[in-house]
Amino acid sequence: MNGLLVLGAIAFWLGAWGLNIWLSKQKQTRFIRLVVPVIFGITLLVVWELLVRGLNVKAVLLPPPSMIGAKFADSLPILWADFQQTFIKGALSGYFIGCGSAFLTAIAIDRSPFLQKGLLPVGNFVAALPIIGMAPILVMWLGFGWQSKAAVVVIMVFFPMLVNTVQGLQAADHMQKDLMRTYAASYWQSLLKLRLPAAAPFIFNGLKISTTLALIGAIVAEFFGSPIVGMGFRISTEVGRLSLDMVWAEIAVAAIAGSAFYGVVSLLERAATFWHPSQRG
Prior knowledge:
The chain is an all-alpha fold.
């Protein structure tokens, strides 16, 4: 029976692989571009389920997706409370504070040659500091509440957003800048009408990078102290209890939240930069 499950996993994988190859050769409509990753994801789950059961892998090492799904359904109130604490309070607040302050700092750097030469090298140094070392310090300073987790997120997202925005503000070429000076445009007129539109793809690139960093930072910060709620707290606690199905349920919530957050920012980018070549079909 176990051997049949393993053979079934191999056969299912090969069949799905062949189907995806066939679909990739068809006319790439929106439906096909959507169904190919869906088939791939379903294939991973089915193969995971069959291999875990066929090879008799202990649930304490790797539970099957069916067990994780059952735990997910049974723990919805706990998962929702953890999601609110980690994502809404910690990750989102830190994301908006960090990205907003980085954007304003980038404009200040763009205005000041002194800051360009002084702040950016310091920023690169701070960005290289390991978050695993900064998180416990911020928890000690700001307490176990969501504020310390938001502070960790601010540090994680600030410098990627800053570097992308500064680079984007320099994206307009010299001829366009000379033309604005010919029209006697002020700095702010040039910024609003030329340089910010040119920097928009870079800014959104920083925002998209920061979506994943924000959630990672909030979860990591909770490993070093939090109230009895939160994704990081739950993961560290359930690992100690060898309840791996709950750990994977929390990972699933984090993956869904992070993917949705990234998707929302991508949709905003498409709406705001529809004129850019990268957004044209």
